[in-house]
Amino acid sequence: MTLTGDMLIGGQAIAGNRDAIHAINPTTDEVLAPGYAGGGREQVEQACALAWAAFDGYRETAPAVRARFLETIADEIEALGDALIERASAETGLPLARIQGERGRTCQQLRLFAQVVRAGEWLDVRVDPAQPGRQPLPRADLRQRQIALGPVAVFGASNFPLAFSVAGGDTASALASGCPVIVKAHGAHPGTSELVGRAVARAVRRSGLPDGVFSLLYGAGHEVGIALVTDPRVKAVGFTGSRAGGTALINAARARPEPIPVYAEMSSINPVFLFPAALAARGAALAQGFVGSLTQGAGQFCTNPGLLIARQGEPLDRFLDEAARLLERSPAQTMLTPAIHRAYVAGVRALAGNGKARLVMRGAESLGPNQGQAHLFVAQAEDFLADPRLQEEVFGAASLVVQCGSDEALREVAERLEGQLTATLHLDEADLPAARTLVPTLERKAGRLLVNGWPTGVEVAPAMVHGGPFPATSDARATSVGTAAMLRFLRPVCYQDFPDSLLPASLAFANPLQLRRLLDGQREA
Amino acid sequence: MTLTGDMLIGGQAIAGNRDAIHAINPTTDEVLAPGYAGGGREQVEQACALAWAAFDGYRETAPAVRARFLETIADEIEALGDALIERASAETGLPLARIQGERGRTCQQLRLFAQVVRAGEWLDVRVDPAQPGRQPLPRADLRQRQIALGPVAVFGASNFPLAFSVAGGDTASALASGCPVIVKAHGAHPGTSELVGRAVARAVRRSGLPDGVFSLLYGAGHEVGIALVTDPRVKAVGFTGSRAGGTALINAARARPEPIPVYAEMSSINPVFLFPAALAARGAALAQGFVGSLTQGAGQFCTNPGLLIARQGEPLDRFLDEAARLLERSPAQTMLTPAIHRAYVAGVRALAGNGKARLVMRGAESLGPNQGQAHLFVAQAEDFLADPRLQEEVFGAASLVVQCGSDEALREVAERLEGQLTATLHLDEADLPAARTLVPTLERKAGRLLVNGWPTGVEVAPAMVHGGPFPATSDARATSVGTAAMLRFLRPVCYQDFPDSLLPASLAFANPLQLRRLLDGQREA
After folding, report:
1. Is B302 an active-site residue?
2. Per residue in A112-153, pLDDT tens?
3. Is residue B107 annotated as a catalytic residue, yes or no?
4. Interface contact B142-A459, CB threshold 8 A
5. Fewer CB in 10 Å around end: N or C, chain A?
6. How high is the ipTM of this complex?
């Protein structure tokens, strides 16, 4: 399985003609071959033309065909075997076991979307039968279904080289919805991207689908990304990454005459509220859970608990002591890329130099390149409220504890939080009344609320929301994880008085797909 | 029922302190009292503060309470009696019977949303029960529901002073979703707006809801609108009007740090395809249906058929002859405002002066101020394709017939259309194969496709889509008419491992609202 360094445009291997990107093994700082020469406007043009040509046919594939295609992608990814695991681990510094787990999640996600495509809930079929005798005017026969938006540009994340990358959640949900996908590979794992991209291209071919259903592009600078987001044939964008990166794509999309949805998942510090009774009863266990969640995967998760909020006092002091004790022993961990490591060091340094945040403890010293030490800071609520920089995400295993002198201060901290992916409440029975008054605020702030858990670990399930108000994402109406992620790439079309022979199968009179339709506003049993 | 000229901010009558707007009776050019002094930033601030304060409470009102509130608005509008009908007719030039019908539609719409709120489908409840024994990791209990986005700014349309105005579809669907509403009244019917606004405010009071649930502002310039759209407490915008107006609001919203959805319904020429067999078999009947749809309400509908497309030849010539014969006899009709009449005259003049569009016929001469004469033009497909100005909406009873020399030309005309609210196919059995090849293109172009009907007349029903790709609207994923309009103002929130006592009723373990939930991805029977 030799890597070629080529892009994949509608299944064809195409060499780029711009500067090459190279992966770096962050564990050793070794530069990994091959180089991935970047594409430019001309390759974007080619990929968009093919995607557009494929669109009408692909979006009308039967649910069974599209489901089988998604399953074939999963099969092809598994068929890559250890070569994928080893390359992904080398490119990211993530342990083999973690990558194996992530591959499992990625393939399970594709198979789950296959089930969802077959079940057909996403079509949201609505039928209002004609009422020819209605007074004063007859009612026409109205039928509604969802159709795919069009080609989708996907920008993968650095921290999940499989599950949020070339064949990750954005790609799986867009393909499930009937949208062709053009991926711009993340520069940190181009070899992993090539392997997975070839697996997807093989699945396209094996499924007899038009080539343009999938393309994979590389690019060192912004040229490819901006060209993709501004191409009139691209109808939606999926992005997971930094606030700066997401903002650049949002601004590029705004330059279009036609507005399109940009689903950017950007930054979140995932506040965790420790309520008094819980903190008093089981502070040590909470500290253990917290440090485990904070340091998992070197803290490189969008749902990493970067902010703890509690009433000051002895229970919180004991919690901090225990967290410090655990943190001190936590080994430094290799981060994903030298750039991410540098940004983490700079972020931690900014917090330490802020003057309002006091360092509680740091983890064990680095033993190799690009290793991040965990950091725990503490600040007073008044200082947190006065300085928005204390709310900036530090991507990695750093967290800030905000000590509140009163319930009012705690409530104000909650009210002043920016939008988040998650918000967590640790509580016991006696904390319920206080928690109840906080939930409405947190509902306005976050896409997922947890009780007595930790936000890391995002289940791929129908009820999951991995999203939230700005700046956690650019569109609080959407989730990028879970089966509802498909809804991002669909739009409704109404068919009025269509003869049965002109209707798609999902709307046909006899309901051949056996959907539970909304019939005259009532859900069919 | 004396009109005061005051704004309504959280139920309080507040006099504006900017230039006043006055309604004009377009039938007589008479200026109608009272003046409506405009508000400014300070009144927007006040309305937004009240809406924000009302939001958390209002969005959690029980479905039955919110439904009853919507019904109470309808009752209060009906209780306005003839005063409303007479004022609306005077301000718009629309006949009394038309306004009566529109009142019926407006109240029926409010009552339909009440039913939908009670039924609870909009909550899209999803439950994935915990799997504590799952390997390798247990699964948490995940529950998802939809919650309201936040306060919504509504900009009413000129052409439906009731159904798309103060208590029209945007307001009804936003209130149904749990969003407080701040309306900027359309300057053409301020008296109608005051009457309806007072009815809504009375319903708020009678329902025991917080005052900030509803406010009504006036303003002659852009100050109020821009301040509303850029206020951080406003979380969505509903607009129906011109492309220029919609574009201004979209651009204003882009100045915000936090992106918000702007649902602008802007312009559409609603292409109608006349297929050969249908045209040959019943050209005269088609001409009759067409002229009826074109001239209804002086052509002042977003779904007015502004474009006909057909193969050239004798059947089309006969259709044109018959349409011309009918059009010649069609009386000029008073348009909504002097400005709309001037824009119509200018638009028709631009078409007539284009050189590529030939005038087929115009309707009867004007007999009074602000009366629009119907106009029918014809152009060749090549000219239509070469000149985008021939696609510009002329708001009023003007239509352009595009004659195509070949099926390829017809297909290219379809492919080059901008986004539309509707696209219509007139066809007989023999036309089905040709129609089938055109439908995929039209699905990409429009929100609603009709067979053998006319696009004017938009049913308020669960399966309706009144929306479509840009520039018909700013967001093709949305509809502004029909029960799915509520989905615009909602976002999902996931609750992980919440104890039953902390869950909202819609997610409680015992399912007290008896919702048909998505349970583990399967719809409950």
Report:
1. yes
2. 999 999 999 999 999 999 999 999 899 999 999 999 999 999
3. no
4. yes
5. C
6. 0.98
